[in-house]
Amino acid sequence: MKFPVIILVVEISFLGHSCFRIKGKNTILLTDPFAEEIGFSFPKTTADIITVSHQHHDHNNAAAVMGTIRRSAPFVVAGPGEYEIAGVFIYGIPSFHDAEEGAQRGGNTIYVINMDGVRLAHLGDLGHKLSDRQLEEVNGVDVLMIPVGGNYTLSAAEAVAVIGQVEPKVVIPMHYKMPGVNIDIAPVEDFVKEVGLEAIKKEEKLVIYADRLPEERQIVILNARNQNSAS
């Protein structure tokens, strides 16, 4: 008797700033939806789950996200803890928005997301290198979404240091200067230079197969799906 082969695939697209749409077999998860005050409008989109790293307007616009045929309204995860929603396991890790234990900008939640055999981490607006305990909790991450724009988060050089701590298979930069963004942060080119890439190749989306993860680390820069300036 032959059994069907189940291929586990996770598809990642970038909506801009720190917002990713992560689609698995039966679940869509959205990270850090932003408000149009950052300089461009948030696109119409759906999700079963939303993660919010902290309560700043460029990361917590959960009200703009519609539900799916499976869930009338998204389940919002907005802080540290362990969660299991629709077969997705999420672990929220407390951290800080700055290098002074939150004295400047408060707290931040790192999310480790286990979806369809792929282990992802979204660092939110992380502002410091990881502690030994935090590093232990993100151990074994396949895909790392990391801020690189500096000023309010990790700089390009600091991001490279954190990548060296985590040692993920795939790195996706986020929270950098984009057309229309009115926040004073550095462009992704600064990060590209810091990691030693010779050229920028942007992808429309990233498809990750749980059984075919890259052997060598990859840096993937995604085109944002929404680049229309807010009116």
Q: What percent strand?
A: 25-35%
Which CATH C-level class is it? Alpha Beta
Instruction: Please state the overall shape, judged from the principal axes of the Cα atoms.
Output: globular
Report how far apart the termini are.
60 Å
Please, how many helices? 3
CATH superfamily: Ribonuclease Z/Hydroxyacylglutathione hydrolase-like
User: Which structural category do the helix and sheet elements fall into?
Assistant: mainly beta
> In total, how many beta strands?
15
The assigned CATH architecture is 4-Layer Sandwich
Q: What is the count of distinct domains?
A: 1
Q: Would you give the CATH topology?
A: Metallo-beta-lactamase, Chain A
Mean pLDDT: 91
SSE order: EEEEEEEEEHEHEHEEEE
Radius of gyration, whole Å: 17 Å
In the predicted model, the low-confidence regions spanning at least 5 consecutive residues are: none
In helices, the fraction of residues equals 10-25%
Helices and strands in order:
Elements: E1 9-16, E2 19-23, E3 28-31, E4 49-51, E5 75-77, E6 81-85, E7 88-96, E8 107-115, E9 118-122, H1 132-137, E10 143-147, H2 156-166, E11 170-174, H3 188-195, E12 202-203, E13 206-209, E14 218-219, E15 221-222
Parallel strand pairs: 3-4, 4-5, 9-10, 10-11, 11-14, 12-15
Antiparallel strand pairs: 1-2, 1-13, 2-3, 6-7, 7-8, 8-9
Helix pairs in contact: 2-3
Protein name: Lactamase
